[in-house]
Specification:
By secondary structure, the protein is an alpha/beta fold. Helix content is about 15%, strand content about 20%.
C-alpha cells in the first residue's frame, strides 16, 4: 500500500492515485483518491478536468480520501460563472484595456461562489459536472453525467440535470454510525484488517473496534 504511487495497478496507465499528480497549490486531494481516464492522460487531471480555476480568485478544489472519480468528470470554477447581477453577461472587466476599466477589478467579470469541497469515499460518475461552490458529503454518489449545482448530503445518491437526490444509500442510523466512525481516517493496517466488514456492509462490526 502506497498512496504516493501514481499508477497503483500494474500495467494500467488509465488509473492513477490523484494526489501525487497534483502540482497546483489550490487543489488539495486526500490519500488513495483515484481517477480513471480512458480518453486522456489521467495524470493531467488538474489541467483537463478542473476548469476556469485561476489563482486570482483564490478558490480551491478540496477532495477527500478514498474517492473514486470516473473518466471525464469536470469541476467548474468561478471564472466560468459570468456575473448575473450585471445587465449583460458579457465579461467586460476581463477586457479592461479595451473598455477603459480598472485592471484590479477584473474579477468583477464573474460571480465567485467559492470552493468546491468533496468529502471522503465519494464516487463521481462518468462525465459528471460539479459546479463552483458545491459541497458533496462523505459517502455520496454522483450519477453519470449529472450536473451538480447544489450541496449533496452525506451518503446520498444524486443524478440528473440539475442533480437531485434520488435516494439515501443507507438508513439514517447507519449513516450516523459511518459518519461517527470515519473509517477513512484510520491507518492503513486497521482498514486492511477490517476490509471484510467494510466490503460486506457490516457497520455494526466496525462500531465495536
Amino acid at each position: 500500500m502506497n498512496s504516493n504511487e501514481v499508477y497503483p495497478r500494474k500495467g494500467d496507465k488509465e488509473t492513477v492515485y490523484l494526489r501525487p499528480t497534483i502540482t497546483k497549490p489550490n487543489i488539495i486531494v486526500g490519500e488513495y483518491t483515484m481517477y480513471n481516464d480512458f480518453v486522456n492522460d489521467p495524470t493531467q487531471f488538474e489541467n483537463n478536468n478542473v476548469l476556469y480555476h485561476y489563482p486570482i480568485n483564490n478558490d480551491k478544489l478540496k477532495i477527500g480520501k478514498y474517492c473514486s472519480i470516473a473518466c471525464g468528470a469536470k469541476f467548474m470554477f468561478t471564472s466560468g460563472n459570468h456575473r448575473m447581477s450585471s445587465l449583460s453577461t458579457y465579461p467586460f472587466p476581463l477586457f479592461w484595456e479595451e473598455w477603459g476599466l480598472e485592471r484590479n477589478k477584473v474579477t468583477d467579470a464573474w460571480d465567485n461562489e467559492g470552493d468546491i469541497i468533496i468529502g471522503n469515499d465519494v464516487w463521481i460518475g462518468y462525465e459528471a459536472v460539479i459546479m463552483q461552490g458545491v459541497q458533496i458529503g462523505d459517502g455520496a454518489i454522483v450519477a453519470t453525467r449529472a450536473v451538480v449545482t447544489k450541496d449533496v448530503p452525506p451518503y446520498s445518491i444524486v443524478g440528473g440535470i440539475p442533480a437531485k437526490v434520488i435516494k439515501k444509500r443507507f438508513s439514517e442510523q447507519v449513516i450516523k454510525k459511518l459518519l461517527d466512525i470515519q473509517w477513512w481516517n484510520w491507518d492503513e493496517d486497521k482498514i486492511k484488517s477490517n476490509l471484510p466488514h467494510i466490503l460486506n456492509g457490516n457497520v455494526d462490526k466496525l462500531t465495536h473496534l
